[in-house]
Specification:
The chain is an alpha/beta fold and 503 residues long. The chain is built from 16 helices and 20 strands. It is 36% helix and 22% strand. Bound molecules: flavin-adenine dinucleotide (FAD).
Amino acid sequence: MHKNLFPDSHYDAIIIGSGIGGLVTATQLAAKEAKVLVLERYLIPGGSAGYFERQGYRFDVGASMIFGFGQRGTTNLLTRALDAVNVSLEVIPDFVQIHYHLPNSLDLKVERTYENFLQNLTSYFPHEVKGIRRFYDECWRVFNCLNSMELLSLEEPRYLMRMFFQHPWACLSLLRYLPQNVGDVARRHIKDPLLLKFIDMECYCWSVVPADMTPMINAGMVFSDRHYGGVNYPKGGVGQIAQKLVEGLIQTGGQIKYQARVTQILTEKGRAVGVKLANGQIYRAKYIVSNATRWDTFEKLLPQEKILANEKKWQQNYEKSPSFLSLHMGIKASSLPAKTECHHILLEDWEKMADPEGTIFVSIPTLLDPDLAPVDHHIIHAFTPHWIDDWQGLSVKDYEAKKEKAARRILERLEKIFPGLDTGLDYLEVGTPRTHRRFLGRDDGTYGPIPRRKLRGLLAMPFNRTAIPGLYCVGDSTFPGQGLNAVAFSGFACAHRIAVDLG
Ligand SMILES: Cc1cc2nc3c(=O)[nH]c(=O)nc-3n(C[C@H](O)[C@H](O)[C@H](O)COP(=O)(O)OP(=O)(O)OC[C@H]3O[C@@H](n4cnc5c(N)ncnc54)[C@H](O)[C@@H]3O)c2cc1C
């Protein structure tokens, strides 16, 4: 049937972009012997999970707190994605997910051992001992359901039926949590307003919205997997994940082209049939998958009149989150206090949690893998939300001056948790939302979609199929959202749906 429908399609699927969502789709399809081509606009794969090198330092451009590398269950999607194309990565366990430095002298470590974490938190809120356990135990219920079943496309009825017959209670339970947000669940168990603020931060630091707007399904994954599969750092840096997936893709017969910027998704009779590159080259395929954000896909790669009613509806529910101001630093190892943890969150005023330059996120991956920096040195990535509008229309001189001023402000605040950081500074590169837009190819450099208001959990988040036949989306603007393990989930689902469509 498909041969007649697609007479001159050389490929089964073309994937626009080699972020982790795109690469998991591509490798899953290649492992099923589909003919796949990945087109990446940049020089290397990975997108927000890429890397760059300067003066002997290897920096992660974005992600460095990595879930999905566990060895058990079904939610270890990065381990599984690599396995599927016969490659693997050495990972280094991180025994503290985050060291929080919060207002009200809340200085708390989220340890890998669940009971230790509960103890740490309860020592600040002894009157909430029961509520704390009940709340986090409820997150485990979500996780245990997810972790008991194969995670594939929720747009595939036969898979859904199979899961329902194999795991009826888990499916019913997940259906119950799908429309729920963390805030409502937390308030059922917890009364202390300060503790509820802490739960807000527990959500904000990966969803970039407070608990009331963070879906319970995503929280179930993050709040439990950190104690189950754990947070693990790939040896050689986060960029290795994409490099290995590409290695596996090529070994299984897939192809990837770099510096191949797609400027147009071609349609015929309303169906997506191919893509056009900036150099004019055209490629055709039975199915086109966009790993670009939804804003880039529907507003830039398709003609404006093709912005469909359901995309407009989606935009009424979701908006672009801010981008980030990033400080990539190389520092002398002696300038870090002993026993420093890898990941930190710094906030001095609860009211400013979600403001630009409110919360500062810090990662020091060389504490896990020292080979990413010259001997006796560390890398630090400190980043904080920023809007692109604040960085537009500046002369080169003003842009540089503004970067320097902003970097100074961040460094001053970091001095409180890392005294002597400034004097130990060996290298500093500042990235703005413009940098994120330019190098990651993401509209306004956004971190991804966030709800405009309180929605019903994940119910409004789209799956992989779009209203244009033959066109699929994958990555963080599809179910279940941001984060490497989440976009890997989206990649598994997308490849599954396409494999079924390919017959
Ligand atoms: C600063 C920062 C810190 C983060 N920290 C974490 C963390 O600690 N843990 C975690 O799990 N997640 C983290 N994330 C989120 C995570 O990195 C992302 O959610 C995830 O990497 C997004 O993957 P993706 O597949 O959706 O697409 P992307 O990573 O956006 O990749 C899309 C790819 O498509 C390419 N592309 C786009 N348009 C075109 C085109 N027209 N033609 C060809 N190619 C194109 C891009 O160049 C890019 O390579 C962080 C993100 C940022 C920015």
